[in-house]
Amino acid sequence: MVVKSIVMLTLYLTPFVLLLTVVDTVWLSFVMWTLMALGMSGIGLSIMHDANHGAYSKSKFVNNLMGDLISVVGGSDAMWRIQHNVLHHTYTNVTGMDEDIDPGSILRFSPHEERKVYHKYQHYYAWFLYGMMTIMWCTVKDFKQAIRYKKLGLTKTQGASFSKIMSKIVIHKALYHAIFLVLPLIFSPISWYWIVLGFLLMHFLTGVILGLIFQSAHVMPTSDYPMPDETGNIKADWAVSQLVNTCNFAPDSKLLSWYVGGLNFQVEHHLFPNICHVHYKKISKIVRETAEEFNLPYNSEKTFASAIKSHASMLKKLGRQDQL
């Protein structure tokens, strides 16, 4: 994890330093922004994700420190933990509770959501919208979430007052944009509009990478989307629901697994989110055998490409299937 952290931070920060100092052509600046996108995605997938689950280290201080790296890529650690740890991991694929399947009315990720006419084409345009993910994070999303989570009483789960959480979001957003956007505008000899375009390119590529990794694990044909009853209870065993509504992909690809922080082993991650991802490959055999022993599903796509293809198929199905 230490080596990986150094590699990902280097991949993110070195091109940035070069942008400020020696890069003086547009095409080379775009190469730097692209490399930064790979580093930004790696930081999110391989470092801060484990840390915010408390799985990076046995030290709470180290987990908090590495988890806060999300601010270096424009996000809020507190909002991430609420959306991801509290809601997504507890209510995986539960419509109205899991915000990972609630991207707004422009996309339909659940058969229980209202179907719009334009959803018929979402398997074509969804990929572009995935690219908007981190652009929204670094601008308005965290502020909207903070206000909404306060009304729901969820900000209390972070052990800090709402004013402290909001102040931290404001400060970190200001610092992020001052460093990663304003500094290149000041010091780079490249025209300002190319700098802005490069900044947006970095976020767009990062959003596409993150969208493909996370959505190809849950918005899949194998998912059953449990719903709460009239009392708010979900009639499903939590662990079994994780198996049904989560899908692995490319389990034999060492390079992909290394880069995406083991999130190609989403089944293992959802069952054991407090275990560092470097162990997922080894425990996957135990999980698979146990699932088979109890006649439970263990969903896994052989390759990342086949997972994306299945996800696209599910997008198409959801775009044409009537509301359940």
TrEMBL record:
<dbReference type="Pfam" id="PF00487">
    <property type="entry name" value="FA_desaturase"/>
</dbReference>
<feature type="transmembrane region" description="Helical">
    <location>
        <begin position="192"/>
        <end position="214"/>
    </location>
</feature>
<keyword id="KW-0472">Membrane</keyword>
<protein>
    <submittedName>
        <fullName>Acyl-CoA desaturase</fullName>
    </submittedName>
</protein>
<feature type="domain" description="Fatty acid desaturase">
    <location>
        <begin position="26"/>
        <end position="300"/>
    </location>
</feature>
<dbReference type="InterPro" id="IPR005804">
    <property type="entry name" value="FA_desaturase_dom"/>
</dbReference>
<keyword id="KW-1133">Transmembrane helix</keyword>
<feature type="transmembrane region" description="Helical">
    <location>
        <begin position="165"/>
        <end position="186"/>
    </location>
</feature>
<dbReference type="InterPro" id="IPR012171">
    <property type="entry name" value="Fatty_acid_desaturase"/>
</dbReference>
<dbReference type="GO" id="GO:0016020">
    <property type="term" value="C:membrane"/>
</dbReference>
<keyword id="KW-0812">Transmembrane</keyword>
<dbReference type="GO" id="GO:0016717">
    <property type="term" value="F:oxidoreductase activity, acting on paired donors, with oxidation of a pair of donors resulting in the reduction of molecular oxygen to two molecules of water"/>
</dbReference>
<feature type="transmembrane region" description="Helical">
    <location>
        <begin position="6"/>
        <end position="23"/>
    </location>
</feature>
<feature type="transmembrane region" description="Helical">
    <location>
        <begin position="30"/>
        <end position="48"/>
    </location>
</feature>
<dbReference type="GO" id="GO:0008610">
    <property type="term" value="P:lipid biosynthetic process"/>
</dbReference>
<feature type="transmembrane region" description="Helical">
    <location>
        <begin position="124"/>
        <end position="144"/>
    </location>
</feature>
